[in-house]
Amino acid sequence: MPVDVAAVFRSEHGRAVAVLARSFGDLDIAEDAVQEAFTTALERWPEQGLPPSPAGWIITTARNRAIDRLRREAAREDKYAQAALLNAQDEPVEEGPVRDDRLRLIFTCCHPALALNVRVALTLRLLGGLGTAEIAHAFLVPESTMAQRLVRAKAKIRTAGIPYRIPYDADLPERVRGVLAVVYLVFNEGYAASSGDDLVRTDLCTEAIRLGRLLVELMPDEPEAVGLLALMLLQHSRTPARTSEAGQLIPLPEQDRQLWDQQLIAEGQDLVRRCLRRDQPGPYQLQAAINAVHSDPPTDWSQIVQLYDHLLALTPTPVVALNRAVAIAELHGPAEALALVDALDLSTFYLFHAIRADLLHRLQRPVEARAAWQAALDLTDNTAEQAFLRHRLAALD
């Protein structure tokens, strides 16, 4: 995809789908029309140049494509197409607590009739414009499995008649868990891209933080929304130090802390203190607190382990246990941490092997470390991560 079109796709795909979903009341129509518009852009923009408003061009073109399609289908007495076309022509102004189209799309996809993992995956697909492989990577499942989930989710929305509408206040509490998960997974894909040449996709990080701010504004009394925003700000503050000028990955212990964004750190720490005063700890608040400790040198590893103990009690997942093991390595040494890591079932997760390799290297077990570095290398499609792992392998020589 040419650079200009790719940049517009990354920044505007979600907005375009959200706008068309509001217009037509159908997610399939919206996504297909936006895809057709970007295909047309691929054909025209290289010769004609970027239009004055690329986002407006995409939305207008997609809207026209959708109307043309619906007119063809309505002519065949397709009652559903007739209804969608009437909805698009009428397009009444909806009222409700959520005014942002992209945030409304997230709440729509997070309907309680869908399983939580399906809500998250569907929103990543529609809002983030992520490919099936990228979403599968986020869920640690095969691509074919994720493809089936997305197809079934869209079918259920159609057959169950789940509407695209603005959720009202009464709908918000039961959907907030999925909404927060979606926003954080969008951020994670930006913070450590599952594929491509760049380690960081700043556009996704920025969009996730924007949505996080809207969620806090929408639900100021929801501590986990505040915690999520704090977590994203604190993690994003390290972005300038995470890669070298040549784009090479720099691990956290080796980063130049002077490059960290102090304004984001201050805002994130202030939000963490706000959460502490509420004393209603949740997973996002605890992760934010862990990152707040990292932001105050020297790192208090004892406090981080205690926070991970609380987090593991709330969310006893292998990934949380893996991250706790990293802290244990700093507090009690790599041998104790390796025993914890080896007990985890994360063989398809590249960071599992990368962390294990580092522990083996610190224990002076180079043969096993090499095998673990290679296993990690085989499991990542990100160019920056691959280069970092190859450098670690070469260092063993």
Key structural traits:
397 residues; mainly alpha; Serine Threonine Protein Phosphatase 5, Tetratricopeptide repeat; two-stranded parallel ribbon; 2 strands; RNA polymerase sigma-70 factor (ECF subfamily); transcription; RNA_pol_sigma_r3/r4-like; transcription regulation
Q: How far is it from the N-terminal to the C-terminal residue, by CA?
A: 38 Å
Q: How is the CATH topology of the domain at 300-396 named?
A: Serine Threonine Protein Phosphatase 5, Tetratricopeptide repeat
Kindly state the mean pLDDT as a whole number? Answer: 86
Please state the second-level CATH architecture of the domain at 300-396: Alpha Horseshoe
CATH superfamily of the domain at 300-396: Tetratricopeptide repeat domain
Main β-sheet: number of strands, strand sense, barrel status?
A: 2 strands, parallel
Protein name: RNA polymerase sigma-70 factor (ECF subfamily)
Domain RNA polymerase sigma-70 region: 9-74
Pfam families: DUF6596 (PF20239), Sigma70_r2 (PF04542), Sigma70_r4_2 (PF08281)
Domain DUF6596: 175-275
Task: Walk me through the structure.
It is a single chain. The protein has 397 residues and is an all-alpha fold. Among the domains are: 5-89; 300-396, Tetratricopeptide repeat domain (Serine Threonine Protein Phosphatase 5, Tetratricopeptide repeat, Alpha Horseshoe). The chain has 19 helices and two strands. The protein has helices at residues 3-24, 27-48, 54-75, 79-90, 101-109, 116-126, 132-139, 143-160, 172-191, 202-218, 223-236, 262-278, 283-294, 301-314, 318-332, 334-342, 350-362, 366-378, 383-396, and strands at 195-196, 381-382. α7 packs across α8, α9 (172-191) packs parallel to α11 and α11 (223-236) packs parallel to α13.
